[in-house]
Amino acid sequence: MSSEQKFRIGILGASGYTGADLVRLLVAHPNVEIVLMTAERKAGQPISAIFPHLAAYDLPDLISIDEVEWPAIDIDVVFCALPHATSQQVIMGLMHETKHSLLDELVVETQADLAGQAKADIKIIDLSADFRLRDVGTYAEWYGREHTAQSVQPKAVYGLTEFYREELKQAQLVACPGCYPTAALLALVPLLKAGLISTNDIIIDAKSGVSGAGRSLKEQNLFVEVAEAMHPYGLGAHRHMPEIEQELAVAAGEDVSISFTPHLVPMNRGELETIYVRLSEGQTAADLKQQLIETYANEQFVTVLEGTAAPATRMVRGSNRCVVNVFEDRQADRAIVVAAIDNLVKGSSGQAVQNMNLMLGLDEGTGLQQAPMFP
Amino acid sequence: MSSEQKFRIGILGASGYTGADLVRLLVAHPNVEIVLMTAERKAGQPISAIFPHLAAYDLPDLISIDEVEWPAIDIDVVFCALPHATSQQVIMGLMHETKHSLLDELVVETQADLAGQAKADIKIIDLSADFRLRDVGTYAEWYGREHTAQSVQPKAVYGLTEFYREELKQAQLVACPGCYPTAALLALVPLLKAGLISTNDIIIDAKSGVSGAGRSLKEQNLFVEVAEAMHPYGLGAHRHMPEIEQELAVAAGEDVSISFTPHLVPMNRGELETIYVRLSEGQTAADLKQQLIETYANEQFVTVLEGTAAPATRMVRGSNRCVVNVFEDRQADRAIVVAAIDNLVKGSSGQAVQNMNLMLGLDEGTGLQQAPMFP
Amino acid sequence: MSSEQKFRIGILGASGYTGADLVRLLVAHPNVEIVLMTAERKAGQPISAIFPHLAAYDLPDLISIDEVEWPAIDIDVVFCALPHATSQQVIMGLMHETKHSLLDELVVETQADLAGQAKADIKIIDLSADFRLRDVGTYAEWYGREHTAQSVQPKAVYGLTEFYREELKQAQLVACPGCYPTAALLALVPLLKAGLISTNDIIIDAKSGVSGAGRSLKEQNLFVEVAEAMHPYGLGAHRHMPEIEQELAVAAGEDVSISFTPHLVPMNRGELETIYVRLSEGQTAADLKQQLIETYANEQFVTVLEGTAAPATRMVRGSNRCVVNVFEDRQADRAIVVAAIDNLVKGSSGQAVQNMNLMLGLDEGTGLQQAPMFP
Amino acid sequence: MSSEQKFRIGILGASGYTGADLVRLLVAHPNVEIVLMTAERKAGQPISAIFPHLAAYDLPDLISIDEVEWPAIDIDVVFCALPHATSQQVIMGLMHETKHSLLDELVVETQADLAGQAKADIKIIDLSADFRLRDVGTYAEWYGREHTAQSVQPKAVYGLTEFYREELKQAQLVACPGCYPTAALLALVPLLKAGLISTNDIIIDAKSGVSGAGRSLKEQNLFVEVAEAMHPYGLGAHRHMPEIEQELAVAAGEDVSISFTPHLVPMNRGELETIYVRLSEGQTAADLKQQLIETYANEQFVTVLEGTAAPATRMVRGSNRCVVNVFEDRQADRAIVVAAIDNLVKGSSGQAVQNMNLMLGLDEGTGLQQAPMFP
């Protein structure tokens, strides 16, 4: 494909941190061109007004979703970085599905327009949680509202690239994993698939940088509240828990119940998960490590560290990489698996671009070769 | 005691962060006066040269331990904030014990002088790890060297104030707990004493600010290595592990084996431990919480938070406080106990002063009423 | 005064960072008792709900100003940490002044009640900017609104303690300086008084921690926006500029025009000002330093550093101290004066307490002896 | 040039932060290949041992300079990120110059080998300060030692790309500017060239992230010393001062004397300079801005911000960009120029790569298109 024939990209909800990182990655991608960026509250503003660091790039001004002239703009791929719940309605329209009765207020007018006008085979990459849970009942339980795009849900492919590669190549709609699930699943799926660990004794202690909380105005995200401090949150009830369990169950072939506790750490980017597992009869930490080495031998973005090197977020900062390692626990029947990613890249925008590459038939790593930024 | 009769305090090893925080607390203490501060490599310097923030206080210049004229200086209480292993020899001398054959090089000349000259009933508060482990074999195993003050070890009282109060009042030598053990024990000892949790399924995921690593020049403690990043260390083999197990075993009345993983967090102060426990038959998270509430009902420095408030390091920064809470896990037979302390205060210098107060017959909280500093 | 006869303190606007630091200082003050805390939006909540780190203290619940029963509560001293402009109306009432026609909406009902009911000789310490500018025209110019308590303005004493000590002892109403003015004035007033520097070539480059921006929800104060970054703001037009000029003019006996540029630094606390001055004919940097040494020889909270030690914010963190030093510039007719304070303490709450002590006839340093917290 | 014919790159001194950022940029550069990396103290180690974040890249192991087999390795371009003073000797050899009598101990054996063996037309890009000062007397004055490569000095081109482009295309040896000079010169050179500002009243207040201090083990660079704090250093005597003055004098056509004060800020990357200038007769801040706009109209890496947007380090983090703007001062005859760069990129490794591109006849921006990383 020549540079005159770049794929045309739209970003819905471009004013958040996920949107910013999508732009950072896509402006360096040789095969795509950003032609649409929406943001409801900041519609009408140039991107430089909300992200001055992007001022030097030739990017479209922000508009509201209502203002999109879909036929004219001729989008090939749309990234949805919209708030949870809003995505369902917008994507209903994009998928040309019959309108659901429970329309989200924000997009009520938008749907009809969208439904008939977007390109029929538009690729949709959703970064929200709206299509991650296969079971709409589980969605309703954890998100406190009915799923409003139930007819679309079965068409969504879960975007954990390393494990859904073939499905992703055929997908029209991809539900990108949450940041916590991404690190947890890369660490655990191979172990459960191979039956190396117990399915009912998995404890995930997760730590995340603050960008994961988004750009919304909440007191708890102010610099002064976060700096020089740390604390857990969502104890016993974080929404990423059912998502992790869903995919672990797929891997294990049986139900898996986890303990999951996230913590907020005073850094912008980075996510570390320290995972305590019980070994299956006869297994050792070395067996677990060997399984990960084999699983990821040909993966360009997942690295099993050598020896006893501890994964650290600074090893992946700004990159699409995941580093992982396995450690013996002092308790003979236990092991510790540690994984680190950049929550905004492999945990969000980077994995979304990785999926886009697959959907478009491009080399999977195109535009994702940035080395980690340390310092 | 009138202000003319303040207790005379010496700090051995005053140039580290623990020393700095001891000074911060002691200059505000109404019943004591710092009359001696030692630092080997920085001997001869005024305190303002190494801790400019203390320049406004009337403090003695730093000298080496060799230079101390014990009879003349007439110390009532000595804090040992010396490197691990050095403490044993110095304290041997202070305790008037026969010299051990394996003398640390640094202090070989010092011992003889010390032995005969310090006040016979001098109170000694050791902040190193040298006397924390009751079993000298365990010490040798974890610290990679023979214990060189084995005759003194049995005289040391473990300085976890809330649980050794009566012994501390009588002690001549106190071995202050490590920072990680302090938080872990305050969270777990009451639960094990009451038999509410399993003794063989305790997972402690600990996070600490960087001051815990001390002021020594190591690449891994440089700002650029630590900022905007986090990682685990000492996986499966941290020296605080046997110390925690020792005291948990005392509480449980049987051996306890834990999994313990510390992490380095980009903040100066603060320590948070997220502890995953298995409930004893018939117990609930609420039972655990009730036990902590009852245990600490009359403790001024340990607070069980109300409702589902999550302990955060910013709640205790700069203070001698510990905040703790218990949470239901999604797995019915598990609970999560979270504790936060300031590693330099309750985890080190503050608890040392708290112990000093007991040893001197003062009110336990004297000089320790600083409110946490937030922001 | 016995502990039964503590002065009764009210804090209006207690939910911000200034309020938190006032509480931190006042709970450790031996002669006062906090009996009233107001916060409009958080009225009805216990202090532990908004400042969990203060949960262990016996403090009144937050109420709205309207709810204060002034006669019953019998306040001796009120600290006003209210938003700028609100203070004027509240203080009008407290001072029993006739109501002004332009009432702030928030307090319209409150005024009448206040006016007649508070203790006639109540001491008022305002931490807002509302009474700092002697000239109400200058106020209107810089704050974009008419001063609504013009009859009260002349009664306000400017609370730069070291230079208004005698007036403060007699004052009923004190207008505490802004944080930037405090550092600038402590550095420059003695030099201008003595005629050692030019009045028309003063450049103040100021750097502040984020707590100075308050706890309000603004995107620019989110952790992710501030961390790992810095930038100037209010270029050429910051409101602290006329305040600094006002007091420098008093010192110089003539108009002084400054250049002042503040910067936001990724830290919670601390303020550093690097001030570039032109020397008067025949003067040297050493002369300037000597002048500062003499001025502050007997001041407990202002320290002129020795030699070429550079003031650093870590030298004053959490304390009421100011450190200052003078440096030769490479340009012979110039010198550089550097001052550091903790913006929340000497730059706000600490200086307010220092002033309170004077107003109440207490020793000026009572309750302000906290050593700086480093680490 | 096909990918089989990539230029062969050597990095001398690859174990520091500058080396790490060079690698980050060069592994993404389409026309080069890193074939040599040296580090004296860490010789023999794989790069993953000292920079685990680079483990996924195919890079040569670290060796000492002595071990380099120059004929065999066939380097086209060598980057010298060696300590100041070491560079002179190594580059003497590379340039085939007669040995100087004052050989640096470290490299004494190396020189003879180097001198005769490296490719005759090898391109040398020095990131140290060793060849920045044209006058070897000035070098001796500020660096406290004689220049030991005086015959080479005249051949060095000062690598401020935007102003020495033509010379750089012909250069064999480039002396890359210091980080502080880069930002200062980009802001000031156009103004002095056009005579818009006074040559004797320039005050540069600079703020830098900690990576500028390098990876050496100094107490002042420990996390705990730097975090939550800031301070100035090198007051009146920083070594970047004569370098800035040298280039400003070239621009002005007369001697220029500046006041320059750097500050350390708790962040990894980023440099901000707030520059106070006096306007020439009849000039305004708008005139200055217009001059910058015209100068940089066609520059891809220097952006003059619109309106009153304040340059911020987060706008350039991780990128080769510089953002600059001009502000009116309140004093009519003054203006404030603010520039921000990433000290490791445009201030060091990025500008070095930009220069390499010119020296090799490549497009100047090749491999430097990374968008700034925010968050």
Could you characterize the architecture of this molecule?
4 copies of one chain form a homotetramer. With 375 residues, chain A is an alpha/beta fold. Chain A has 2 domains: 3-158, Rossmann fold, CATH 3.40.50; 180-346, Dihydrodipicolinate Reductase, domain 2 (2-Layer Sandwich), CATH 3.30.360.10. Helices cover 29% and strands 21% of the residues of chain A. In chain A, helix 8 packs parallel to helix 10. The longest helix of chain A is centred in the middle third of the chain and has 15 residues, at 179-193. The two termini of chain A are 36 Å apart. Chains in contact: A-B, A-C, A-D, B-C, B-D, C-D. At the A-B interface, strand 8, strand 9, strand 10, strand 11 and strand 14 of A face strand 8, strand 9, strand 10, strand 11 and strand 14 of B.
Chart the SSEs and their pairings.
Four copies of one chain form a homotetramer.
Chain A: E1 7-12, H1 17-26, E2 32-38, H2 47-50, E3 62-63, H3 70-73, E4 77-80, H4 86-94, H5 108-117, E5 123-126, H6 136-143, E6 156-158, H7 165-170, E7 173-175, H8 179-193, E8 197-208, H9 223-226, E9 231-232, H10 240-252, E10 258-264, E11 271-279, H11 285-295, E12 302-304, E13 322-328, E14 334-341, H12 345-359
Parallel strand pairs in A: 1-2, 1-4, 2-3, 4-5, 5-7, 6-7, 8-10, 12-13
Antiparallel strand pairs in A: 8-11, 9-10, 11-14, 13-14
Helix pairs in contact in A: 1-12, 4-5, 8-10
Keywords for this entry:
homotetramer; 375 residues; alpha/beta; Rossmann fold; Dihydrodipicolinate Reductase, domain 2; 2 domains; seven-stranded parallel sheet; globular
